[in-house]
């Protein structure tokens, strides 16, 4: 049997038997569970340790630990390495486990959703993860689609279903589907717009295409129920296939640190080699003198001694790569992540959604963003359409003016129009200009004809479950907003048949005969209906793009056209989506002849489309202009201001959307990304590779003058992303201030991000709210998910999430900048203090016969990074800020140093090493000279190794603490406590470990008996400490003072301004500036072709079943005819 064959390794074709799990089982299709987690209970420890030891430094310290266990070369105890190594491994493992537990919880939440599955003839509630390929499932209104389904039937006429595909492409669509049987189809793939398969029912085979499929990630809308057959589940669904692979993201600073660690290893090898050669020379010249009382072990000569010395110094000088560095980095990142989680200014109370740092490893990268890739629907916009303004017979309505005639800004407190006089009005509809209602109610013919057109010229399908409760099922939200506006102004669309439309006109029921629907398409950019009024009058109503409608107006409309154009320009300047409305009275004889020719064209075998277009052009002439509508695709709060501030920070924003070109352009203008004063907006819409190349080459020169924008369509982008054109695309796009890509697929979004990442070497951020954005969120360095109306798929795949696009400004300009600043300060200081610590060892080797003796006490070496200097640097790295959050937001230019890597780079690292080298020379030779041949006040000699070690380590600790104080801009009580507490801890621990009691208890462990009390009571010791501190700090202070005076940075200028002013005044609320559009049409209509034919076909009026029969209806080898006829 075909269905008993084993599944091939590479699936080439999928065979599915509906509602028959035993026959589908041998194919071992993926179940419907999704897994985004990395570990399970058994794999966590080995896999996590494997990942951690892939980090070069961890592997290095493991090798170091092994070396320390060899007595011949170990000059330090094993615990000096094993304690910090265990600490860093444990902390990292705990953090990774916490992150993965959150992923498990998210997966569990999705996998445990319930859905009705038809099993043994009964509907049973099952978890999503238990759904299998071949199952028949029932979805209800507002439910998420469980898996990729072949739709069988629905509660709607003609088996129509209304599907919100905003998760996939940011739009709403209507799908027409048919019942199914045994299925053969394509294997799993990521092509959202294509599906190929065949359906076999009773021996007959039918073709299946994408119109018959519902994809996981969609939401069922305005449809009571539907049944579907699972064709792809879980990881095989097109949504998950399009999501891209989860990659382990590291920051650019991580990458730089890996390079620096390799360089440090090389530098360490050079230092150890120099000291090993020195040991060999010393053994030959001086070592023979000591053989009499310190005989060498058998077989040990000068060469072998040098070999052992090399490895001994590898152990001693290992602090150039301190393992505590990685512990501290993880703590700092965790702390800065908590700041994001706790930030009340990024909390959205309406949906009770706080900001969330879903990863703790990328914070400082937020301070280096150069490119932002944003979705449109649900990210920049609220996905809500509102009827805002209109122009009727040369007068504009929708604005609110005061008694002086001045325009008043509309806010939430502005009084709204009262529609209680209209019993059928939509209570959610809001309008602020009462004069329009008064005009309509007074019986103005132009106004009533205007709203009559909106009530008749559309493809909306109504649903009236109870008397007066109307629900409009609109194919596009634009059309729904227009029909709802007509409803509230007294022209209520109630019902339709293929031949008629019934509306309520100012309380009177009127039925119009529907004679023809001249459908919308992207070329016509308009739609018309021809109706006959109850009085027998024939009227053509038309709505469409103003540029298209104007070409077809009667000459008598010239004056009205000019007035309406000025209104349209105002609306376009406000970023509203506009349509022009017109009508035409028709003659009965002409209409009869036109309908005959229309019927002939409709049934023609050849040239049907061309003949219909000619007829449409013929009748849509000499139209009379009524006015224009202005619909707002509502932006999220603060979007234009956020984009403006990010642009000032030299961050480039590219919009990647699945919407149509006109819609995307309209939002571009509304967001101020596209502006009237731009030199040129390039439109790339060619359908060939050569055509795309020619359009891209319009920007010829790198040194282009003026401001440009690029708008490119999805089909053109497909050519532009090919190997031979991608660099031309990148060059052109980077010359433009704004880039908008329309009609792009999720895969293309990811490809655009990868293109910029690969060639520009810039840090990228992708932000979106739907499943169609997951691939680019994963591809970008930083992925941000908006917790919106489009589900949680984007949030689950993101690194950071919040509820509103405007919070991105605070995330980058405040948290990102602070995190980058703190991390860079931390790294510079950490390398400084550890190189200084290590270089003192290096200089001391020349005075100890290269014997690998340590210059410090062994306990000081162990505690230096873990106790004495750990908390002060953490305090600085968690709390420091050059300016507060308000100054950071009001001066976006402060963000630019992060983009240019000014605070930490290879140059900064070299400067840090040179500074450390200078400090180490001071910290070794000043104490050495001060102690040389020195005696106590009582004449006793104190020139001994232990006293010198104590003085050297005390000078070092105080010098690096002063350096940290110089680096700290923002002092808090915590910083003060950490600095003074660490110094106090050092002296307390030192006096305790050097006491008689500790020596008597642990003689071999604490040999420095009495050193502290004998040395630190001498004035010359404290004078030496003071001298070294001044000599270490003085050049730093002088250098920084000179830089600020002669070459001040933007940070220096703002900080100088901060000292003069207490706080910047909050930005005043600017009233909206009236912008007049002169260069474009504000037309944007997210409608699709084909619905005119649908509403006039009669098929949508098929009778609904009174009862859903499921018992035994889908049992056996295929689908029964009962369900197929539903």
From TrEMBL:
<feature type="binding site">
    <location>
        <position position="659"/>
    </location>
    <ligand>
        <name>ATP</name>
    </ligand>
</feature>
<feature type="binding site">
    <location>
        <position position="376"/>
    </location>
    <ligand>
        <name>ATP</name>
    </ligand>
</feature>
<keyword id="KW-1133">Transmembrane helix</keyword>
<dbReference type="InterPro" id="IPR006539">
    <property type="entry name" value="P-type_ATPase_IV"/>
</dbReference>
<dbReference type="InterPro" id="IPR044492">
    <property type="entry name" value="P_typ_ATPase_HD_dom"/>
</dbReference>
<feature type="transmembrane region" description="Helical">
    <location>
        <begin position="978"/>
        <end position="1002"/>
    </location>
</feature>
<keyword id="KW-0460">Magnesium</keyword>
<dbReference type="GO" id="GO:0005802">
    <property type="term" value="C:trans-Golgi network"/>
</dbReference>
<keyword id="KW-0812">Transmembrane</keyword>
<dbReference type="InterPro" id="IPR023298">
    <property type="entry name" value="ATPase_P-typ_TM_dom_sf"/>
</dbReference>
<feature type="binding site">
    <location>
        <position position="658"/>
    </location>
    <ligand>
        <name>ATP</name>
    </ligand>
</feature>
<feature type="transmembrane region" description="Helical">
    <location>
        <begin position="859"/>
        <end position="879"/>
    </location>
</feature>
<comment type="similarity">
    <text>Belongs to the cation transport ATPase (P-type) (TC 3.A.3) family. Type IV subfamily.</text>
</comment>
<feature type="domain" description="P-type ATPase C-terminal">
    <location>
        <begin position="795"/>
        <end position="1049"/>
    </location>
</feature>
<dbReference type="GO" id="GO:0140326">
    <property type="term" value="F:ATPase-coupled intramembrane lipid transporter activity"/>
</dbReference>
<dbReference type="InterPro" id="IPR032630">
    <property type="entry name" value="P_typ_ATPase_c"/>
</dbReference>
<feature type="binding site">
    <location>
        <position position="749"/>
    </location>
    <ligand>
        <name>ATP</name>
    </ligand>
</feature>
<feature type="binding site">
    <location>
        <position position="375"/>
    </location>
    <ligand>
        <name>Mg(2+)</name>
    </ligand>
</feature>
<feature type="transmembrane region" description="Helical">
    <location>
        <begin position="76"/>
        <end position="94"/>
    </location>
</feature>
<protein>
    <recommendedName>
        <fullName>Phospholipid-transporting ATPase</fullName>
        <ecNumber>7.6.2.1</ecNumber>
    </recommendedName>
</protein>
<feature type="binding site">
    <location>
        <position position="377"/>
    </location>
    <ligand>
        <name>Mg(2+)</name>
    </ligand>
</feature>
<feature type="transmembrane region" description="Helical">
    <location>
        <begin position="948"/>
        <end position="966"/>
    </location>
</feature>
<keyword id="KW-0547">Nucleotide-binding</keyword>
<feature type="binding site">
    <location>
        <position position="543"/>
    </location>
    <ligand>
        <name>ATP</name>
    </ligand>
</feature>
<feature type="binding site">
    <location>
        <position position="520"/>
    </location>
    <ligand>
        <name>ATP</name>
    </ligand>
</feature>
<feature type="binding site">
    <location>
        <position position="773"/>
    </location>
    <ligand>
        <name>ATP</name>
    </ligand>
</feature>
<dbReference type="GO" id="GO:0016887">
    <property type="term" value="F:ATP hydrolysis activity"/>
</dbReference>
<dbReference type="InterPro" id="IPR036412">
    <property type="entry name" value="HAD-like_sf"/>
</dbReference>
<dbReference type="InterPro" id="IPR001757">
    <property type="entry name" value="P_typ_ATPase"/>
</dbReference>
<dbReference type="InterPro" id="IPR018303">
    <property type="entry name" value="ATPase_P-typ_P_site"/>
</dbReference>
<dbReference type="InterPro" id="IPR008250">
    <property type="entry name" value="ATPase_P-typ_transduc_dom_A_sf"/>
</dbReference>
<feature type="binding site">
    <location>
        <position position="377"/>
    </location>
    <ligand>
        <name>ATP</name>
    </ligand>
</feature>
<dbReference type="Pfam" id="PF16209">
    <property type="entry name" value="PhoLip_ATPase_N"/>
</dbReference>
<keyword id="KW-0479">Metal-binding</keyword>
<dbReference type="GO" id="GO:0005524">
    <property type="term" value="F:ATP binding"/>
</dbReference>
<feature type="binding site">
    <location>
        <position position="479"/>
    </location>
    <ligand>
        <name>ATP</name>
    </ligand>
</feature>
<feature type="transmembrane region" description="Helical">
    <location>
        <begin position="1022"/>
        <end position="1047"/>
    </location>
</feature>
<dbReference type="InterPro" id="IPR023214">
    <property type="entry name" value="HAD_sf"/>
</dbReference>
<feature type="transmembrane region" description="Helical">
    <location>
        <begin position="908"/>
        <end position="928"/>
    </location>
</feature>
<dbReference type="Pfam" id="PF16212">
    <property type="entry name" value="PhoLip_ATPase_C"/>
</dbReference>
<dbReference type="InterPro" id="IPR023299">
    <property type="entry name" value="ATPase_P-typ_cyto_dom_N"/>
</dbReference>
<dbReference type="GO" id="GO:0000287">
    <property type="term" value="F:magnesium ion binding"/>
</dbReference>
């Amino acid at each position: 049997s075909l269905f008993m064959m084993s599944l091939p390794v590479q699936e080439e074709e999928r065979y599915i038997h509906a509602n028959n799990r035993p026959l589908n089982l041998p194919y071992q299709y993926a179940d419907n569970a999704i897994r985004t987690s990395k570990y399970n209970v058994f794999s966590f420890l080995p896999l996590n340790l494997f990942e951690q030891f892939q980090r070069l430094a961890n592997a290095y310290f493991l090798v170091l630990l092994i070396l320390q266990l060899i007595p011949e070369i170990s000059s330090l105890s094993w615990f000096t390495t094993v304690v910090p190594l265990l600490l860093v491994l444990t902390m990292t493992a705990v953090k990774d486990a916490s992150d993965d537990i959150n992923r498990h919880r998210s997966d569990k939440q999705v996998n445990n959703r319930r859905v009705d599955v038809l099993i043994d003839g009964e509907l049973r509630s099952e978890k999503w993860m238990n759904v299998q390929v071949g199952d028949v499932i029932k979805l209800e209104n507002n439910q998420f689609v469980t898996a990729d389904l072949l739709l069988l039937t629905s509660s709607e006429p003609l088996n129509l279903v209304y599907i919100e595909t905003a998760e996939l492409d940011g739009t709403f669509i209507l799908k027409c589907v048919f019942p199914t049987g045994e299925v053969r189809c394509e294997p799993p793939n990521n092509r959202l717009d294509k599906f190929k398969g065949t359906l076999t029912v009773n021996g007959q085979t039918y073709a299946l295409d994408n119109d018959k499929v519902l994809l996981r990630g969609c939401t069922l809308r305005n449809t009571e129920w539907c049944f579907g057959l699972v064709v792809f589940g879980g990881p095989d669904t097109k949504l998950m296939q399009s999501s891209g692979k989860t990659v382990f993201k590291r920051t650019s600073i991580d990458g730089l640190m890996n390079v620096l660690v390799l360089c440090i290893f090389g530098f360490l090898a050079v230092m150890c080699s120099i000291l090993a050669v020195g040991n060999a020379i010393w053994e030959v010249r001086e070592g023979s003198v000591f053989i009499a009382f310190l005989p060498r072990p058998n077989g040990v000569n000068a060469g072998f001694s040098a070999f052992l010395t090399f490895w001994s110094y590898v152990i001693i000088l290992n602090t150039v790569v301190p393992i505590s560095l990685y512990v501290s980095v993880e703590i700092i990142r965790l702390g800065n992540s908590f700041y994001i989680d706790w930030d009340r200014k990024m909390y959205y109370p309406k949906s009770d959604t706080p900001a969330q740092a879903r990863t703790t490893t990328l914070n400082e990268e937020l301070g280096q963003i150069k490119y932002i890739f944003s979705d449109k629907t649900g990210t920049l916009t609220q996905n809500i359409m509102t009827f805002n303004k209109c122009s009727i017979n040369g007068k504009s309505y929708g604005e609110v003016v005061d008694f002086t005639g001045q325009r008043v800004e509309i806010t939430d407190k502005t009084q709204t129009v009262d529609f209680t006089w209209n019993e059928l009005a939509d209570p959610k509809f809001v309008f602020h200009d009462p004069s329009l209602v008064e005009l309509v109610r007074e019986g103005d013919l132009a106004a009533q004809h205007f709203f009559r057109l909106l009530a008749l010229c559309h493809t909306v399908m109504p649903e009236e479950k109870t008397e007066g409760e109307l629900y409009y099922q609109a194919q596009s939200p634009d059309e729904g907003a227009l029909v709802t506006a007509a409803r509230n102004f007294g022209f209520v669309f109630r019902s339709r048949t293929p031949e008629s439309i019934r509306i309520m006109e100012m309380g009177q029921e009127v039925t119009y005969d529907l004679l023809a629907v001249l459908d919308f398409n992207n070329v016509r950019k308009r739609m018309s209906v021809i109706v006959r009024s109850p009085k027998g009058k024939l009227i053509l109503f038309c709505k469409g793009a103003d540029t298209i409608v104007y070409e077809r107006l009667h000459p008598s409309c010239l004056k009205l056209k000019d007035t309406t154009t000025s209104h349209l320009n105002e609306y376009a300047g406000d970023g509203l989506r506009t349509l022009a409305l017109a009508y035409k009275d028709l003659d009965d004889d002409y209409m009869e002849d036109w309908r005959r020719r229309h019927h002939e064209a409709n049934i023609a075998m050849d040239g049907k489309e061309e003949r219909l277009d000619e007829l449409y052009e013929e009748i849509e002439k000499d139209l009379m202009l009524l006015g224009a509508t202005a619909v707002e695709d509502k932006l999220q709060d603060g979007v234009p201001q956020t984009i403006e501030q990010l642009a000032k920070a030299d961050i480039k924003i590219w919009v990647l959307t699945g919407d149509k070109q006109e819609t995307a352009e309209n939002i571009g203008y509304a967001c101020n990304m596209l502006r009237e004063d731009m030199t040129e907006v390039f439109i790339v819409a060619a359908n060939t590779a050569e055509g795309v190349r020619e359009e891209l080459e319009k920007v010829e020169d790198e040194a282009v003058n003026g401001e440009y924008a690029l708008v490119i369509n999805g089909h053109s982008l497909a050519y532009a992303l090919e190997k031979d054109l991608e660099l031309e695309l990148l060059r052109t796009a980077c010359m433009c201030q704004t880039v908008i890509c329309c009609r792009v697929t999720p895969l293309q979004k990811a490809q655009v991000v990868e293109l910029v990442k690969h060639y520009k070497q810039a840090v990228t951020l992708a932000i979106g709210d739907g499943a169609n954005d997951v691939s680019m969120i994963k591809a970008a360095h930083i992925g941000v998910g908006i917790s919106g109306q489009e589900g949680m798929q984007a949030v689950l795949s993101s690194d950071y999430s919040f509820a509103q696009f405007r919070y991105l400004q605070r995330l980058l300009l405040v948290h990102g900048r602070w995190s980058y600043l703190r991390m860079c300060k931390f790294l510079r200081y950490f390398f400084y203090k550890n190189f200084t610590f290590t270089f003192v060892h290096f200089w001391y080797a020349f005075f100890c016969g290269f014997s690998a003796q340590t210059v410090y006490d062994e306990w000081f070496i162990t505690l230096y990074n873990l106790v004495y200097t750990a908390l002060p640097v953490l305090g600085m790295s968690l709390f420091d800020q050059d300016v507060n959050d308000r100054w950071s937001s009001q001066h976006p230019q402060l963000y630019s140093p992060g983009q240019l890597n000014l605070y930490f780079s290879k140059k900064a690292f070299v400067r840090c090493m040179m500074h450390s080298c200078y400090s180490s020379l001071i910290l070794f030779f000043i104490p050495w000279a001060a102690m040389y041949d020195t005696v106590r006040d009582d004449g006793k000699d104190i020139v001994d190794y232990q006293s010198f070690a104590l003085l050297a380590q005390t000078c070092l600790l105080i010098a690096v603490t002063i350096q940290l104080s110089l680096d700290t801009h923002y002092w808090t009580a915590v910083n003060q406590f950490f600095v003074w507490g660490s110094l106090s801890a050092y002296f307390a621990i030192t006096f305790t470990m050097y006491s008689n009691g500790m020596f008597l208890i642990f003689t071999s462990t604490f040999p420095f008996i009495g050193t502290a009390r004998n040395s630190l009571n001498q004035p010359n010791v404290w004078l030496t400490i003071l001298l070294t501190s001044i000599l270490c700090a003085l050049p730093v202070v002088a250098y920084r003072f000179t830089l600020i005076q002669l070459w001040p940075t933007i940070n220096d200028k703002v900080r100088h301004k901060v000292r003069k002013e207490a706080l910047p005044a909050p930005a005043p609320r600017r009233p909206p500036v009236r912008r007049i559009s002169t260069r474009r049409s504000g037309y944007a209509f997210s409608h699709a072709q084909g619905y005119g034919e649908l509403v006039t076909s009669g098929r949508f009026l098929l009778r609904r079943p009174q009862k859903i029969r499921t018992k035994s209806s889908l049992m056996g080898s295929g689908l029964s005819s009962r369900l197929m006829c539903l």
